[in-house]
Amino acid sequence: MFEFLDRPLERRITVGVKVGDVMVGGGAPVVVQSMTNTDTADIDATVAQVAALHRAGSEIVRITVDRDESAAAVPHIRDRLARLGTHVPLVGDFHYIGHKLLADHPACAEALAKYRINPGNVGFKDKKDKQFGAIVETAIRHDKPVRIGVNWGSLDQELLTRLMDENQNSGSPLTAQEVTREAIVQSALISGEMAEEIGLSRDKIILSAKVSQVQDLIAVYVELAKRSNLALHLGLTEAGMGSKGIVASSAAMGILLQQGIGDTIRISLTPEPGGDRTREVQVAQELLQTMGFRQFVPIVAACPGCGRTTSTVFQELAATIQEDLRRNMPVWREKYPGVEVLKVAVMGCIVNGPGESKHADIGISLPGTGETPSAPVFIDGQKAATLRGPNIAKDFQGMVADYIERRFGIGGQRAAE
């Protein structure tokens, strides 16, 4: 008999961490987060981008805090967002002088919902532990969680050198790649233990260990998950642009999520020049939704097209419907509870079109090349109408809107009860 895996494996239960009003780990749904690429000292630009990321679905947003001007701007950014009705936890990304910035700008330390520190560059030699401790003590004082974020681009060289030396003197040495992976894991675990010794409780610690190669990321996080039950942030760093970044991030994180590893994710895409930063949020949502972990927006199934579908009508309609659904979701989540489970099909010909449309909540099978210019519409598995003429796309859009109102509006909810 064949055994089919029809759902993700059970989530690995980690210690829950409250970031603002968002729970990370502890059995909570996997959280989507993102990061701005504005100069944080530019309050207007940063507020606009944080708000856009949150509207797109980012549940936590990280901002760079790299100098006095950016630290001073943080409380103003928080307050401006609140006046706009945008209540999203802000995470401060600190490198090199985080201890000083937090000490010199207590309003910044209070405004942030979480601090992110990198043990590879928090300080060097005899200053490292002291400066790491200063940040942790500030977090304790302000009751803030900390993400200890290791990155192999800035890995603790003292730790790596020591492990390389030990490996060289061992009877069966590992490869340099394996030693580097171990150094990444140890850096995260040792720093987490140090934070606990200083007094930061386990429900205030999130670990991450970012690398830029898929197999390395999988190996590192599998090992981290074996050795710790602290909450884990997943992310493939320097993933790249466009489809390369999307494929690499999805491949790496998809495998880990399938194994129940990961409590919050970020898709680190390099945007096109002048590109939309919210793309990384959309990809993260699509990954979690495709794998069956979360529901964010209605799914639109559309055929890929072939020689039977030289018309571009079905492509244009599928794109329009998908864009309409995504654009309206911020309002629809409030107005139509449950609308994110909606399934829409936009098909291009009669081969698979009718069958696929029947499987959706509402679907249309547009005429392919040489077929009769009519488009049957199926609702809840039954043929409901046949659309003809030049306004097929507009007519179908109206039917989708009517279906949403009928099923997810107040009247539809009462009928379901």
Automatic annotation (TrEMBL):
Assigned EC number: 1.17.7.3
Cofactor remark from the record: Binds 1 [4Fe-4S] cluster.
Listed GO MF terms: 4-hydroxy-3-methylbut-2-en-1-yl diphosphate synthase activity (ferredoxin)
Keyword set, alphabetical order: 4Fe-4S, Iron, Iron-sulfur, Isoprene biosynthesis, Metal-binding, Oxidoreductase
Pathway participation: Isoprenoid biosynthesis; isopentenyl diphosphate biosynthesis via DXP pathway; isopentenyl diphosphate from 1-deoxy-D-xylulose 5-phosphate: step 5/6
Reaction equation(s) it catalyzes: (2E)-4-hydroxy-3-methylbut-2-enyl diphosphate + oxidized [flavodoxin] + H2O + 2 H(+) = 2-C-methyl-D-erythritol 2,4-cyclic diphosphate + reduced [flavodoxin]
Cofactors: [4Fe-4S] cluster
Listed SUPFAM superfamilies: Nitrite and sulphite reductase 4Fe-4S domain-like
EC class of the enzyme, as a word: oxidoreductase
NCBIfam families: ispG_gcpE (TIGR00612), PRK00366.1 (NF001540)
Function of the molecule: Converts 2C-methyl-D-erythritol 2,4-cyclodiphosphate (ME-2,4cPP) into 1-hydroxy-2-methyl-2-(E)-butenyl 4-diphosphate.
Protein name in UniProt: 4-hydroxy-3-methylbut-2-en-1-yl diphosphate synthase (flavodoxin)
Organism: Aquamicrobium zhengzhouense
Lineage, uppermost ranks: Bacteria, Pseudomonadati, Pseudomonadota, Alphaproteobacteria, Hyphomicrobiales
Designated gene of the protein: ispG
